[in-house]
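The instructor's notes for this session suggest beginning with a concrete chain rather than abstract definitions. Hand out the sequence below and ask the class to guess, before any prediction is shown, which regions might be ordered.
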Amino acid sequence: MVTPDSDGSPAAERSTGRPTRGGMPKRSGAPGSEDRESERGLRGLVGSGSSQVSVGAALRARDASRPSDEDLAEADRDLTIVRRNWLPREELPRR
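After discussion, reveal the predicted structure:
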């Protein structure tokens, strides 16, 4: 706690000429280096420039992640879709 001096100004402010600032301690390392790295990765994904993944690798990844016919049949059989507050048209009251 800063106590006021006899003239009413805080002692820390009087000695340095500036008010003291509390805040977060400075991080070690280069300033903003972590932010720059994450931003660089995002720019590669969504930016207008080229990414670090070649077109061929991106196409292979897309094809590998597509569900097979067996996956689709299993999803149709086992997956329950819940639509909240939805009623089929046949069950709606007639006007």
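Then share the key points. The mean pLDDT is 71. The two ends are 73 Å apart (CA to CA).
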